[in-house]
Specification:
Structural class: alpha/beta
CATH topology of the largest domain: Rossmann fold
Strand content: 25-35%
Helix content: 10-25%
Number of strands: 37
Number of domains: 5
Largest sheet: 8 strands, mixed
Distance between the termini: 50 Å
CATH superfamily of the largest domain: Class I glutamine amidotransferase (GATase) domain
Radius of gyration: 45 Å
């Protein structure tokens, strides 16, 4: 119950104030003239002014409200290492018990986990949201239970009550962290990439410095072993294994006693690009498609093209003097013997044996392929003749044996069942308008096909007349070879009957022969978006086994892949944490880093009261390590220090809710008039007796 006096003047306050001034002057004048009843007249005037002011009494019935203590609990990744989860639960139980013993006090517990992406511990954001849901007048205290590693201190709200930080962790904690600096997104193949690594110990490390082992693995291959010092920046040169995306995994073993191994590894992805693609084009008899091959290769500024063409074969006798045919002798020996390893790809376009290139040169080309090179054969009628290059030392590496039959009729190139799955030709049928039926691409026709018999190891990805092989791929030793059993692909480039994807087909062929991972037949990889990953498995088989995902903490999850397109199986999985994940599917392995391999939560894992302690001091609170014992919670008056040795304070707010309001007149109007009349009569009688 509470009461207040209210005024509701019958006239405007300005006039009421003027009357008060006049009555005061009149009372003073009466006193100055010595009237004995001046004070009675003054009281009478005051009674009249009070009547005009219309005073009333407001009475409230108040229901007391409980005080609120907000406890924000940090359950981010760094709070789940060592024995911090046990410490956290023990503190929650202790605080709950102490608040339960306090009269008229409620506890609000707010739990927060990792922020989206790699935002770290967003405790101030969680505190702001918690305070916005409670009446500020009822907040008696704020408790933050954390390791002190907060990443949004700039968002600290205005605090209506003392704040205290309860810090988990121990003074003996220590951790080892691997840091990779200046990792580029792109690198040139053949040129070493210099990365700067650092291994540093944080907290109460058992030793200072020393040497620790380090492993570096590229694309899940056997790791390279190194030994590097602790606390120093080390430059490590890395040679990329191939073009395309290279996944480099760095790791140092877990040391005894360190808090976590989540920051002992790092993964970076570097896209390997070729500075220049060196191509040797060997043309035979001139034909309409020769210029097309040259234009396609010269259109790419990243291609260095050497074109070896035979314009005047030895059997041609036209009487032209030899000294007028060329200025210099063509360096065949230098190209095909001494510098052949400098070429990334050799293309034979309608070439046949004519005595220009000795068998020794062709045998050297076959050896070049077996040792890792790449050869593409664009076959014309010459491939089916007695002078075919198949009947040379090159024949041992070619994927198709000619039968001497040549089809001279129109046909539409089509993808085989394997071709629909093979990355070289997968989806080529979608790069053109639909044909006369759903299974026929809207490509232009070709008019020549060389009949060949594929080798046992060749893969036929395109076919022509009567399903005869058109494009065959094969692996020979360390290298790769492709055979296109037609010289009519140039019709696609010229747009005949709508043309076709000749440029895309050639690009994929070249990159497949360059062993680009993106075009491997059997491939496992994952694409990360935030904390979600899309796992993709490409294969020429009809089915694939389940994929096993190993999380950063070592837990394994088995996932089933579903076929989305021919030869492509996928699934989408939401990972529980940021970090490095390892994938295994049959004989294939892959790694993917969601966010950084060591997320922001694990950049600094040693508990620290510095950040939260500075904020707590602004409210009279303090940061307390719970390893020293849980402090007692006391009540303190507002404005007094709210922390001391072994205790922390909250401020009772005495908030209430108004249940009912009643307003009563202080005195009725007639009572004021009667009182004023009696005072005036009393003044008159007193003055009359004098």
């Amino acid at each position: 119950m509470s009461g207040d006096i209210l005024l509701d003047p019958l006239i405007p306050l300005v006039f009421l104030a003027a009357l008060a001034v006049l009555t005061t002057l009149g009372t003073l004048l009466a006193a100055w003239r010595g009237l004995s009843g001046w004070w009675l007249r003054g009281l009478a005037a005051l009674a009249l002014l009070a009547a005009i002011a219309n005073p009333s009494i407001q009475r409230e019935d108040r229901a007391p409200l409980s005080d609120i203590v907000v406890l924000v609990v940090d359950e981010s990744a760094s709070q789940r290492i060592a024995d911090r989860p046990d410490q956290t639960e023990a503190v929650i139980a202790d605080v709950t018990a102490q608040i339960a013993l306090r009269p008229n006090t409620d506890l609000r517990i707010v739990r927060m986990g990792d922020a989206l992406g790699d935002g770290g511990t967003q405790m101030m954001t969680a505190l702001t949201e918690a305070l916005s849901e409670e009446p500020q007048a009822r907040i008696a205290g704020i408790l933050l239970l954390s390791d002190g590693r907060v990443h949004d201190m700039e968002r600290a709200p205005n605090l209506p009550a003392p704040l205290h930080a309860l810090i988990t962790g121990r003074d003996t904690d220590w951790d080892r962290r691997l840091i990779v600096r200046n990792a580029p997104a792109f690198a040139i193949l053949g040129e070493p990439v210099t990365l700067t690594l650092r291994i540093e110990d944080q907290g109460a490390a058992p030793t200072d410095g020393g040497l620790v082992p380090l492993t570096i693995a590229i694309d899940g291959a056997d790791p390279l072993q190194f030994t590097i010092p602790v606390g120093e920046d080390i430059e490590v040169p890395i040679d990329l294994a191939h073009g395309g995306m290279n996944v480099l995994q760095f790791a140092t073993p877990v040391a005894e006693g360190e808090l976590t191994d989540r920051n002992n590894a790092a993964v970076i992805q570097i896209n390997g690009v070729r500075d220049r693609l060196r191509v040797l084009l060997v043309s035979g008899e001139p034909h309409p498609g020769e210029r097309t091959w040259r234009n396609l290769l010269k259109s790419d500024s990243a291609v260095d093209l050497v074109h070896f063409t035979i314009l005047r074969p030895p059997e041609k006798q036209d009487g032209v003097p030899v000294d007028e045919l060329s200025l210099i002798a063509f360096p065949t020996r230098e190209l095909f013997l001494e510098k052949i390893d400098e070429f990334d790809l050799i293309i034979f376009d309608r070439y046949k044996r004519r005595g220009i290139l000795p068998s020794l040169y062709l045998d050297n080309i076959a050896t070049y392929v077996e040792e890792g090179g790449a050869v593409l054969i664009a076959a014309g009628p010459d491939y089916a003749s007695a002078d075919s290059i198949f009947r040379s030392p090159l024949g041992r590496i070619l994927p198709g044996t000619p039968t001497a039959r040549v089809y001279e009729q129109g046909f539409l190139p089509t993808l085989t069942d394997l071709g629909a799955r093979h990355p070289v030709t997968e989806g080529l049928d979608t790069l053109a308008p639909a044909g006369p039926d759903a299974d026929t691409p809207g490509w232009g026709r070709w008019f020549r096909l060389i009949q060949v018999t594929p080798s046992a190891t060749a893969t036929t990805v395109m076919s022509g007349i009567n399903d005869e092989p058109l494009l065959m791929l094969d692996r020979v030793g360390e290298g790769r070879v492709a055979l296109l059993a037609s010289d009519q692909s140039w019709l696609w480039d010229r747009g005949f009957e709508g043309g076709g994807p000749q440029l895309e087909m050639l690009r994929r062929l070249a990159h497949w022969m360059m062993k680009e991972p993106d075009l491997e037949e059997e491939m496992l990889w994952a694409e990360g978006t935030g904390q979600s990953m899309r796992i993709i498995r490409r294969t020429l088989d009809d089915t694939v086994p389940d994929v096993t995902v190993t999380a950063p903490d070592g837990t394994e999850t088995v996932l089933t892949l579903e076929e989305t397109t021919p030869g492509r199986f996928e699934t989408v999985w939401d990972a529980p944490d940021m970090g490095l994940y390892q994938l295994a599917n049959g004989d294939l392995d892959a790694v993917i880093g969601l966010g950084p391999a060591a997320p922001r939560e694990f950049e600094e894992t040693i508990a620290s009261p510095d950040l939260l302690g500075a904020l707590a001091e602004t409210t009279g609170g303090a940061a307390v390590s719970i390893t020293d014992g849980m402090p007692q919670i006391r009540a303190v008056r507002e404005g007094r220090p709210a922390a001391g040795r072994g205790w922390i304070g909250i401020t009772p707010r005495e908030a209430y809710r108004t249940a009912d309001v009643q307003v009563f007149a202080l005195l009725p109007a007639w009572a004021f008039v009667l009182l004023a009349s009696l005072l005036v009569i009393g003044a008159w009688l007193r003055e009359g007796r004098r």
